[in-house]
Amino acid sequence: MISQPNRHCTVELQALPSRIGQVRRIVSAQLRYWHLDPLIELAALGVTELLTNVHRHAQPDKLCTVEIELLGGTLTVSVHDHDPRLPEVRDADPLATCGRGLAMIAAVSQSWGVRAHGEDGKDGKVVWFALPAPAQAVALASYPVRAAKPTRRTDALERRVSQHAPARSAVAG
User: Of 33, 125, 55, which is closest to residue 83 (Cα–Cα)?
Assistant: First the structure.
């Protein structure tokens, strides 16, 4: 029996502008690791919009959890916050600089939605969107990643290298 590949990653944070950029980088790195490079731009855009909504609107706090999950052929990105108020898609003025986040997520995703979290929504809400994963990435995700065995230097070689090679920094500058 062939099982469906499943990958899952969770990040808890306070939705502050400085943290949003960090989570974008975490999501991008995780998708690269899962061989989902074609989805990085859309997933990073979507998670930025969802975290910005938490930062701007969520009460009583800005604490939230970002989850990304690859299940079968779908990548789902979700953000859970503690505010029970459900967001709404708005018609933004053409010159407005905000108010288009959910409409943009709806436009670029396969599907999206909002659901109450916990009993009667008392634990906040989850806003999510789904992106179709490229078939070759799903096939790659089903195989475990194995690192190559490190090669060992002999003691004599290590002594020669340490005696004759000057110390160098890997950082330019």
Answer: 125
From the list 141, 129, 2, 140, the residue with the least C-alpha distance to 70 is: 141
Judge whether 50 and 79 are in contact, CB under 8 Å. Answer: yes
Are β-strands 74-81 and 111-116 bridged in parallel, bridged antiparallel, or unpaired? unpaired
For residue range 141-166, what is the model confidence (pLDDT) as tens digits? 544 444 444 434 334 434 433 343 33
Please give the pLDDT value at position 163.
42
Q: What is the model's pLDDT at position 87?
A: 87
Write out the chain in H/E/C secondary structure: CCCCCEEEEEEEEECCHHHHHHHHHHHHHHHHHCCCHHHHHHHHHHHHHHHHHHHHHCCCCCEEEEEEEEECCEEEEEEEECCCCCCCCCCCCCCCCCCCHHHHHHHHCCEEEEEECCHHHCCCEEEEEEEECCHHHHHHHCCCCCCCCCCCCCHHHHHHHHHHCCCCCCCCC
Contact call for residues 118 and 124 (beta carbons, < 8 A): yes
Distance CA 80, CA 11 (A): 11
